[in-house]
Amino acid sequence: MSMDETHGGSMVSAILSSIVLLLLLGRTADAQRSLEFFDLLPEDPKLYDKMRPPKKDGQATIVYFHVTVMGLDSIDENSMTYAADIFFAQTWKDNRLRLPENMTSEYRLLEVDWLKNMWRPDSFFKNAKSVTFQTMTIPNHYLWLYKDKTILYMVKLTLKLSCAMNFLIYPHDTQECKLQMESLSHTTDEMIFQWDPDVPLVVDENIELPQLQLVKNYTADCTQVYSTGNFTCLEVVFVLKRRLGYYLFHTYVPTCLIVIMSWVSFWIKPEAAPARVTLGVTSLLTLSTQHAKSQASLPPVSYLKAVDAFMSVCTVFVFMALMEYCLVNIVLGDSDTPPKPASPPQPPSSSGTDAAKLDKIFDIATKKSTTGPPPGPTPAQRARMRALNIDRVSRVFFPFLFAVLNVTYWIMFAEYI
């Protein structure tokens, strides 16, 4: 082999090596190049309209929802609101997009800001009063693109939601608070919301509320027909049952003790008017304060609640105990007043004789000998006996009637305990 041929072969090898190296560097550069939004658009970007849902074969776009509830708190009966911390996920398929080149993984993380230039479901929380977007330590949301052109958008939110409450049988009530998600502008001809077929709803089992207990939760459909069309809607329903322990020890037991305390006056003698009147009035005022305290956290509703009925009947019992003493005082009358003092005897006349004195002594002896058995009880004694009998009857009648009231009340609401 000549020297020129050897040199020529070396040159060819060097050129081939350079070409291979340039190709490898080019591929590495392409692999390391960041993904741009225009890489996802069709080759003709005009074919992509972010205002139109990606309907396939004329069928409405299906958006799947998933909700993870991490907490429920701040339930306010007065304003009829509650707060919820949730992860909110939406999944839909957009066949108009292109997959990134060399996409080997199952999904790829996209810039969340790209949602401004993409079509996305126009869902909103129908019964939300305010929504807080979590930003610690970074904005708590992300966007995934799967190989089958499915897009997943998930965000963490804190919601303040309205909850229509009915307090007719308060505090034995059970409330249903909802989380509703509805389409803002797309009718069911263009878009339909559906729950995720695998895991539609996840609720943290460790949720604890001070006065309410989360006994049940479920998903439902709340699609409604408006004048502008039929708009798709989904909802989560939280069934909250009120815990009775707080009200049992802070409302019912103290109220019953106040009523029982008013009965102490039946054992106080009728003549002790200041003691009996003071006890009755004090019991009545204390019960009124207790009733007002039980209504402090509730809105001023126009219907009668169960606790109102119980407290009102207890107030009537205390009032009747006070009226019972009025009856006793009327029966007792004025017979307990001291009798009028007798007029002093006239001094004997100085002109009286011993014969007159003897006649007077004889008359007195005659009266004593002709007097019958001692007379019966005086009117004052009879009146006092009647007053005492009223107290004795009240000692049995009031507790018996109050016991009947309690048994009736708790039997009526036994199924709600």
Automatic annotation (TrEMBL):
All copies of domain Neurotransmitter-gated ion-channel transmembrane, residue ranges? 251-332
MF (Gene Ontology): chloride channel activity; extracellular ligand-gated monoatomic ion channel activity; ligand-gated monoatomic anion channel activity; transmembrane signaling receptor activity
Instruction: Tell me the first and last residues of the signal peptide.
Output: 1-31
**Major site of localization recorded for this protein:** membrane
Where is the Neurotransmitter-gated ion-channel ligand-binding domain positioned along the sequence? Answer: 48-243
Keyword Signal among record annotations: yes
* SUPFAM superfamilies, sorted: Neurotransmitter-gated ion-channel transmembrane pore, Nicotinic receptor ligand binding domain-like
Q: Which UniProt keywords apply?
A: Cell membrane, Ion channel, Ion transport, Membrane, Receptor, Signal, Transmembrane, Transmembrane helix, Transport
Gene3D superfamilies per record: Neurotransmitter-gated ion-channel ligand-binding domain (2.70.170.10), Neurotransmitter-gated ion-channel transmembrane domain (1.20.58.390)
The protein's topology relative to the membrane is:
Multi-pass membrane protein
UniProt cross-references to CDD domains, sorted A to Z: LGIC_ECD_HisCl, LGIC_TM_anion
GO CC annotation terms, alphabetical: plasma membrane
| Family annotation (InterPro entries) | GABAA/Glycine_rcpt (IPR006028), Neur_chan_lig-bd (IPR006202), Neur_chan_lig-bd_sf (IPR036734), Neur_channel (IPR006201), Neuro-gated_channel_TM_sf (IPR036719), Neuro_actylchol_rec (IPR038050), Neurotrans-gated_channel_TM (IPR006029), Neurotransmitter_ion_chnl_CS (IPR018000)
Location in the cell reads:
Cell membrane; Membrane
Residue ranges of the TM segments:
247-268, 309-332, 393-412
Q: Which PANTHER family match?
A: NEUROTRANSMITTER GATED ION CHANNEL
**Which family does this protein fall into?**
Belongs to the ligand-gated ion channel (TC 1.A.9) family.
Name of the featured protein: Glycine receptor subunit alpha-3 isoform X2
Organism of origin = Bombus vosnesenskii
